[in-house]
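Before the break, one more example. Copy the sequence into your notebook; we will annotate it together after we see the structure.
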Amino acid sequence: METFFIENFGCRATEADAVALRRELLTKGLRDAADPATANVVVLNTCTVTAAADSQAREAVRKIHRANPTACIVVTGCYAQRAPDDLASLPGVAYVVGNARQSEVPALIERRFGIGGPRSEGRPRDFVPAEELEYGLGDGTLSLARGPAKVLSGDIFAQATVQLAPASLLAGSRTRPILKIQDGCNNRCAYCVIPFVRGRSRSLSPDTVVSEVRGLVAAGAKEIVLSGINLGSYGRDLAPRCPRCDLAMVVQRILDETELDHLRFSSIEPQDVTEDFVALVASSARLAPHFHVPLQSGSDRILKAMHRWYRSELYAERIRVIRRLLPDAAIGADVIVGFPGETDEDFRATFDFIDRLPFTYLHVFSFSTRPGTEAAKLGAGVPPLVIRERARALRALSSQKADAFRASQAGRAVRALTLARNGEGWTEALTANYLKVRVAGQYPSNEWHEIRVSNEGKVAPGADGSALKDHLGESKVAAVRDGERNFLYAETVGELARDTFEI
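Here is what the structure looks like once it is written out:
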């Protein structure tokens, strides 16, 4: 039986896509491989949000091909949609499949290995039948004309559906399954290539969302992360069939019609973080007090050049609403440094703006030109050394804010959901407001524990009188009760708030 391994890059939306692909490959009869070095098929689901993301994908292809030269390497995702030729020329790549045709990846692999039909005995893994060289799936879209790998592409703007994986597979893929309810984006920010690789905004119907949540709960999910490329735009494409469809409406239906313990959101644009929506989140303990609101710049001049519709004062007003209605909420933001034309004054405006607001973490991105975007036409950009210095300054500010937020939580009693990561004598867990803690003892993932965060520097001893230590050797231990009201102990750790890939 053939085996496969999926290596995923990028955002939560690509994670959800990877789970859908895995479902289809399992359905075809393939088995999971432990790692890419032993798999017959390796699927790389790529990101293209920055030049670094492109480079990371290319290096992964080279590394996998060196370790497993007979593997059938399939590259898909956003980079494959944007620049298939770049990937088709890499040694070892068998197929390059853009997002527009990603759902056809399992059929390609099925034909490649003769799964479900006759296969020549002894046929090597890198053998391609002559009839597939030009016609592949029989529609003339696969061709060797652009390189040794066959490219399957299509019009991403013709896509009208959102890929889904079954609830049982989503729930089994991670402790906090991601449910993608929206894909694509109708905005045209000057720096962003995502609309051109994800297509127009499109949404699952509210009935489908509720059904999927019920299925995930039945499969054991305690917390679900609602995700989308532009999550706040959910439902706008469903009009006039569903004139009242928006994110708040579908969230209310999840609260009213399912037994889900806890719902978290991926990033939401500031125009969609309205006072009514924040009030909805504040009204229910089942909704995570955690907002990730992309900022990009605190300079109005740069925001205008980026084609961001808001200006700094409106953004600040939305953040102040969150803090007023949810005093203990986690508040994160994306920031781009080095956008073409960004002066020292623009950066200082951004730094001071962020410093004044109650953020708890930042995701800092160094600008990189994306082909086909408006920003690519702006000419010479900010020198790389200056970009690095500005990014370093913002990351230091982010660390200060994360530390201050963790200190502000001292003495609070909160719930935390155990994660899959653990070590000798501890299990990692995540609070509703996005603090990562380590619970003393070994516990299965996906369990709720009640935690009281300790005062900074004051140690709550374990049952044996000992205390856990963090990686600096400093004691930061919190008292915890489990479901049976037994005392446990936990230490707060800072990795999650500083991780630029976890939302």
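The chain is about 35% helix and 20% strand. The CA atoms of residues 428 and 438 lie 4 Å apart. Try to locate both features in your own notes.
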